[in-house]
TrEMBL record:
This is Two component transcriptional regulator, winged helix family. GO terms for molecular function: phosphorelay response regulator activity; transcription cis-regulatory region binding. PROSITE patterns: OMPR_PHOB, RESPONSE_REGULATORY. SMART domains: REC, Trans_reg_C. It comes from Rhodoblastus acidophilus. One of its GO terms (cellular component) is cytosol. Residues 2-116 form the Response regulatory domain. InterPro entries: CheY-like_superfamily (IPR011006), OmpR/PhoB-type_DNA-bd (IPR001867), Sig_transdc_resp-reg_C-effctor (IPR016032), Sig_transdc_resp-reg_receiver (IPR001789), WalR-like (IPR039420), WH-like_DNA-bd_sf (IPR036388). It comes from the Bacteria. CDD domains: REC_OmpR_EcPhoP-like, trans_reg_C. The modification 4-aspartylphosphate is found at residue 51. The keyword Isomerase does not apply. Coiled coil: none annotated. GO terms for biological process: regulation of DNA-templated transcription.
Length: 235
């Protein structure tokens, strides 16, 4: 999952980014409303952490502009502890949740996990696909009850695919949602990670849809029932 943090306080921005990266997210950040608006308007983030009191363009204006442009990205706003009017304005502008400053980083992480779950139609911290279970809170993966050790990149890839289980996810979408702006988008990194992930899971749940991308689907077969021609053939 790829997140955007828009916070003008340098230290708090750095702390939030570090916590999110430590939790396995790819993170971009901005320290004013104009840059934040531009990034949120041009990049496909899975969620945004948005401060209300920003220089150049305030957070409410940024959020309102995103929503008017039809952008439905989940947004968690940061408000002052006694700023109830900011909370109301934030929700009216299209915010999905808020955290009041000062806050515990664990609360921010928990609220973001909840936003990401709801955005992809999941009610629980545990995502399940056949014998594969992924605990988003503990960052743990089990296959048939046995723990599987994944690298941070492998876990990030599996988490995105399981959040969108049953849907074909293109390589371009994976790159856009799993890596920050500095990632080399012309590399074959995704194919390498998919291959490693298949070997570690040891379960027939991660399939390639030729010409389209990848899908987590416990019911799909790598051969049986697949078309013999066209872009939908699984291998």
């Amino acid at each position: 999952m790829r997140l955007l943090v828009v916070e003008d306080d340098k230290d708090l921005n750095r702390q939030i980014v570090a916590a999110l990266e430590g939790a396995g997210y790819a993170v971009d950040s901005a320290r004013d409303g104009e840059e934040g608006h531009f990034l949120g308007d041009t990049e496909p983030y899975d969620a945004v952490v948005l401060d209300i009191g920003l220089p150049k363009l305030d957070g409410i204006s940024v959020l309102s502009a995103w929503r008017k442009a039809g952008r439905a990205t989940p947004v968690l706003i940061l408000t002052a502890r006694d700023g109830w009017t900011e909370k109301v304005q934030g929700f009216d502008a299209g915010a999905d949740d808020y955290v009041a400053k000062p806050f515990h980083m664990e609360e921010l992480l928990a609220r973001l996990r909840a936003l990401l779950r709801r955005a992809t139609g999941h009610a629980s911290n545990e995502l399940v696909c056949g014998p594969v279970r992924l605990d988003t809170r503990a960052s743990r993966v089990l296959v048939n009850g046995a723990a599987v050790k994944l690298t941070s990149h492998e876990f990030r890839l599996l988490s995105y695919l399981m959040h969108h289980a049953g849907r074909v996810v293109s390589r371009t979408e994976i790159v856009e949602h799993l890596y920050d702006q500095d990632f080399d988008r012309d590399s074959n990194t995704i194919e390498v990670f998919v291959g490693r992930l298949r070997k570690k899971l040891g379960a027939d749940v991660l399939h390639t849809v030729r010409g389209l991308g990848y899908v987590m689907d416990a019911a799909a077969s790598s051969d049986a029932g697949a078309p013999t021609s066209g872009a939908d053939e699984r291998r």
